[in-house]
Amino acid sequence: MTTPDEKRGNQVDAPGASARREYERRTAKDNAATKAKWGVFGDVAVALTPERQSTRVWNTGAIGERQVGAALDRLASESIRVLHDRRIPRSKANIDHIVVTAGGVWVIDTKRYLGKAPERRVEGGLFRPRVELLFVKGRDKTSLVDGVLKQKQHVREAVGDVPVAGVLCFVDAEWPLFSDPFIVNGVQVVWPKKLVTMLQRSTDPVIEVATVAEMLERRFARA
Predict the structure, then answer these.
(1) pLDDT score of 13 more than 70
(2) How many CB atoms lie within 10 A of CB 160?
(3) What are residue 134's DSSP bridge partners?
(4) Cα–Cα distance for residue pair 169/204, rounded to 1 Å
(5) Which of 9, 152, 19, 17 has the alpha carbon at shortest distance from 73?
(6) SS3 160
(7) Following CA atoms 6, 23, 172, 75 in sequence, which dihedral angle do they give, to the nearest 10 degrees?
(8) 29, 83, 106, 190 — which has fewest CB within 10 A?
(9) Separation of alpha carbons 212 and 103, rounded Å
(10) Strand partners, 106
(11) Integer CA distances (angstroms), 136 to 36, 44, 170, 182, in order
(12) Helices (H) and strands (E) in the chain, counts
């Protein structure tokens, strides 16, 4: 019997599943430590103790991945294959989303930041090397770009001579009206609606979608 996901040509992946599991694991560990400290008052202490930021960030990430994943799943078809939450071999790291279109492969890392939209800054030039930086809420977050570049390299090693694009998709950021996506060191920085628009653009087919998607499914197991 064909499932709804198979009819869409998509694997039954759960966006943000590994992040959610890590959040639940950390929450259970934090609660256990609090109960051990407070003994018979443990349940009350757990209820009154604020969630640790290092734990909360995993739930925040899972929410962002689910939002973007839902938008991508609506695009899934025979011509657009979507893979979520894929483990990088021999690593604890994972790739949030991989989308295979006739024009190439898209490696998408989702970030959820509330507040001012990210911005591109350029430093250096005449007397020192020119560098492109990504700033989020006033802080240098260029390391996020570097992370996507590493993910792109892993995917490129898997698919060979196939176009591979890297994307940082920011969820819930306050993008100005009429704003445009931008590129930092070859990585596109966008928001969910713009990402969907980009994926829907008609391009000349250069790859066999099903073949490349199956290759990626074999290389990158579900996280």
Answers:
(1) no
(2) 8
(3) 120
(4) 24
(5) 9
(6) coil
(7) -10
(8) 29
(9) 11
(10) 99, 165
(11) 38, 37, 10, 14
(12) 7, 9
Q: Work out the mean pLDDT of the chain and round it to a whole number.
A: 87
pTM of the model: 0.82
* Residue whose pair of structure tokens reads 């925040």 in the numeric block: 60
Inform me whether the pLDDT recorded for 1 exceeds 60: no
pLDDT tens track for 149-175: 999 999 999 999 999 999 999 999 999
Q: Rounded to whole angstroms, how far apart are CA atoms 193 and 142?
A: 23
Q: DSSP character for 141?
A: -
Q: How far apart are CA 213 and CA 101, in angstroms?
A: 9
Q: Tens digits of per-residue pLDDT, 44-72?
A: 777 878 888 777 766 776 777 888 999 99
Which of 25, 52, 46, 47 lies closest to 34 in space, CA to CA? 46
Residues contacting residue 26 through CB under 8 Å, at least 6 positions apart = 52, 54, 55, 58
Nearest to 196 by CA among 6, 68, 19: 68
Gyration radius from the chain CA atoms: 20
What tokens does 122 get? Answer: 């350029």
**100 near 117, Cβ under 8 Å?**
no
